[in-house]
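Hey, resending since the last one bounced:
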Amino acid sequence: MSDKIGRNSPCPCGSGKKFKRCCGANTSSGMEDLLSPMPDDLLTGTKVDFYFDIYRSVVLYSEGLKTDPEFGTELRRLCRDFEERFKPGTEYGLPDSFYLNWFLFDNRFDIDQRTVIERLMEEDIFKESTGETQEAFLELSESYATCYQIKKINENSIFFEELVTDSRWTVNRLGDIVEEEAKPGDIWHARFVGPREDAYYFGQPFVFDKEAKRDFIKIVNGLINTFEEYASTRSLEFKIPRDAFKAAIGFWAEYFYRGTLKYLNDNLRSDEILSNAVSKPILCTTDGEKLRFSEVIFKIIDKDRVRDKLLRLKGIEYDDKNDCWIWSKKGNRRMKSWDNTLLGRIHIKGEKLVGEVNSLERALRLKNKLSMRLGKTVCFERIDSKDHAVMPEPSREEMKKFREEQRQINSDPDVREAIIKKQQEYYLKDWISSKIPALDGKTPRQASKTKEGRLQLEVLINRMEGMENTKEDYLPKMDMNFLRCKLGLPLRCG
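The structure tokens again:
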């Protein structure tokens, strides 16, 4: 790849158009700087210069994707959300390198969950490039950011050990100030690119004293365990721990932006940081799939036969009250107290058969199930999907109406008793046997067997009780002493 893309060259975004009539037509001044040859004083004389040449073409390709009818809306929203939340490039925001590395190499989007660079590697411009260029593309695509400890510093290289995995890395020095201040024992959160025996750091590392090692090991372990549980419910294939580290970038963005090291120095527990920062950004189904409201849409060819075939499908039952079909499965992987799990609803709407589910994974499974079982009575059209985060906020009038309906429902003593009973059943059957980050990955049963674990449990249950007390006044509130009693903890009076 050359350092300069010609105006009449094919656009690297893969559109097939000339650069001047595609991404080049709307190139900002900042993008022009990115595409122009690097100043001599910024060249390192190492393979990093080659990586950066490729990096610039991936940035340009991403600009094309942002205007794509299929991906553009989602990508622009992701960038806008990141910029508003973490203010990259500003005085108190995250570095631009952190932002762009996340967007190009780590951020997975759309149904197939591929990154920007993975999509570019399927374009002709990649397939026609040299073997050396393809290898460098792959090294950038495979790269991830995580925590390392410096073991030794030589004149030309620094030797790192990856926390938790213990992988060893030999990283070439580039002459930056951060190397001059480095010392054995320091912890770096960094992205290394290339083979482990001949790698380079790519982007600004975050450096911490060796005292942070214990906390970071806890956090990294928690991130890997959380991702493994998430990945076990997906139909997609992941490489662990690589994809766990890529998925954790949102957590680290929050960690660095908020200056979490200050919280650690103020004795905030790392498990509290982990439980707060990991669990908040992602809403999931009980199967661990990211919450996305999705519709699977078929065109109906033979309405009478469709109804007949639906009635015969295993796992799908007709709901005559609402004139729809309920798709469900027995039990629940996480909620052991549940007899069944509702997976979705299927409606006939005019000439369309519409399946409504709340994750992309369920949408794909339902699409395959209906395509196979309904045969030529329907014709698949599309899957529409929206993130929970982009759903419109309810109006003040809608919220007022909802609260009033809930107040009326919950004023019934039988309803209140049933809700409390169901909640207690969940805690005694499911929660008590679940691994919880705030308990160092132990279950409440396991934690209750040690002195330290019981102290952690008391803090956790007190916090849960505090959340109960903040509920709307019309909602039933649980006395958490039933849990304390079950786990052998002191009861709380008042």
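The radius of gyration is 26 Å.

Sorry for the duplicate.
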